[in-house]
Specification:
Rossmann fold; 49% helix
Length: 301
């Protein structure tokens, strides 16, 4: 009603497809252009939403190039604005405290990133530490960094670390980007942090482990071959994905050792990460969005 009263030039819907697509349907008779900022993840699940989008959305703005291409194939006007982390990472990096100096003789730096949620840390940190022990036993001069995502998990993390007194892990909470910048290899939970690792072009071993019921439901609706966004963006396996029961110390170590030992394998992965990094875009996505919306409105008049 407010949009109609003010004779809005356009309505910009942001995320939250459950509500916003219904709202767009309600506005159909108003004949006001609809711009949707940040595409729903149709490529992962609920692709049938494409029908409402085709009918009610005039311009879709996406974070990733493959999303824009998907909409264009469906006849929906779409533009990619890039991912906001590209512009945020440099600012965040400047705010993080520097890491301690590396111990003398350090040849390899391995980041341990088991996630930011308690459930992730409880499932992934222990096998990561067991794998780290195997790495330490078979490679010399290894430095392990565990940035920790949240102060609330500090007790949980330090308790788990205390079970491995022989393992030289430096706990550096609040310095995830500094850790990624320094790392030669990242053992990481699937999630947004993998995009940050890709930004720094770091080889990674990707892990995903949830409760069996959640995994069952995910397999029912998931439309992609991959879980990790890095592989989804590349549309091929760039990083090995260890899922559910595959998340074992031995499996983690096997892939980590290959990355550390096989130069060609490692360099190819870094090159693939460079392509993923490029797909995240450049500059300020908000400015890109504003320019696309301005152009759309000018051409719609």
């Amino acid at each position: 009603a407010e949009a109609l009263r003010r004779s809005a030039s356009a309505i910009i819907l942001v995320d939250y497809p459950g509500f916003n697509l219904r709202f767009a349907e309600m506005l159909e008779e108003a004949d006001i252009p609809i711009v949707y900022l940040v595409s729903p993840q149709l490529w992962a699940w609920k692709y049938n939403r494409i029908h409402k989008i085709k009918k009610y959305v005039d311009l879709m703005l996406t974070l990733f190039p493959f999303e824009a291409e998907m909409y264009q194939r469906e006849g929906v006007r779409s533009e990619c604005i890039g991912h906001p982390l590209v512009s945020r990472i440099p600012r965040r990096l400047r705010k993080e405290e520097p890491l301690p100096d590396a111990p003398r003789g350090t040849r390899i730096t391995v980041a341990l990133m088991p996630g930011s949620r308690r459930s992730e840390v409880s499932r992934l940190l222990s096998p990561m530490l067991e794998a780290a022990h195997l790495i330490q036993s078979n490679f010399s001069g290894v430095r392990f960094l565990l940035p920790g995502a949240d102060g609330r998990l500090s007790d949980m993390i330090t308790t788990e670390l205390s079970k491995y007194p022989e393992l030289k892990v430096e706990y550096v909470p609040g310095r995830s980007l500094r850790t990624l910048e320094a790392a030669d290899l990242v053992l990481i939970a699937s999630g947004t942090a993998t995009l940050e690792a890709a930004y720094f072009k770091k080889p990674m071993v990707l892990m995903y482990k949830v409760g069996w019921l959640n995994m069952f439901l995910i397999t029912l609706v998931l439309r992609t071959r991959f879980i990790g966004i890095v592989n989804i963006l590349a549309q091929r396996q760039v990083s090995v994905e260890l899922l559910q029961t595959e998340v074992t110390p031995e499996n983690i170590y096997q892939e980590a050792a290959r990355i550390l030992s096989e130069r060609g394998y490692r360099e190819n992965m870094i090159a693939e990460m460079e392509q993923v990094r490029k797909s995240l875009g450049h500059g300020n996505p908000s400015l890109h969005a504003a320019r696309h919306i301005d152009s759309f409105l000018r051409n719609s008049v």
